[in-house]
Design goal:
single chain, mainly beta, six-stranded antiparallel beta sheet, three-stranded antiparallel beta sheet, 1 helix, 9 strands
């Protein structure tokens, strides 16, 4: 199992997954926070925070996940009240209408939470809603290997693993 870590997020990547953890370049108007992208298919160089530019490449046996950090002003708000990242999603957690951009056959799940004093959303896309009983265990295996620390460590060189 390959492991990658950056910006206080660590991911033990199950077989067949690749990923990257990064911060977008700041534009001077907003402070960038950590983003993690994980997928069972080749991630293109340019991917939107929630999979734009990638999810259309998914096959019906693929999984994509985005772990997106929000700023400290989100702490304590009702949206981020759940005290931990979900670790065991169910097939009932996935719906086609949850997708940010609906793609035929796919389904998604989105969770807002606070972990280690940091607010996040987890957005997971399945390549096939019809095959979700086979794909949800893949997503859960990934979630079981994700950790968030309250102390942000500097990024390691080469934080992308294939």
């Amino acid at each position: 199992m390959a492991t990658l870590a950056a910006h206080g997020i660590a991911a033990g990547l199950p077989g067949g997954f690749e990923g990257r953890i990064f911060k977008r370049r700041g534009n001077g108007l907003e402070v960038p926070f950590a983003v993690g992208h994980f997928a069972t298919f080749g991630l293109p160089t340019e991917v939107g925070d929630f999979g734009g530019g990638a999810v259309h490449l998914m096959g019906d046996t693929d999984v994509f996940a985005s772990l997106f950090e929000y700023g400290p002003d989100s702490l304590g708000t009702k949206l981020f009240a759940h005290p931990a990242m979900p670790r065991a999603l169910t097939t009932g957690d996935f719906r086609p209408h949850v997708l940010r951009r609906g793609l035929a056959g796919q389904s998604g799940s989105q969770w807002f939470f606070t972990e280690a004093g940091r607010p996040f959303t987890l957005y997971v896309v399945l390549g096939s809603h019809a095959r979700r009983s086979l794909l949800v265990p893949k997503a859960n295996e990934l979630l079981g290997g994700l950790t968030v620390s309250s102390t942000v460590q500097p990024a390691r060189t080469g934080a992308t693993w294939n």
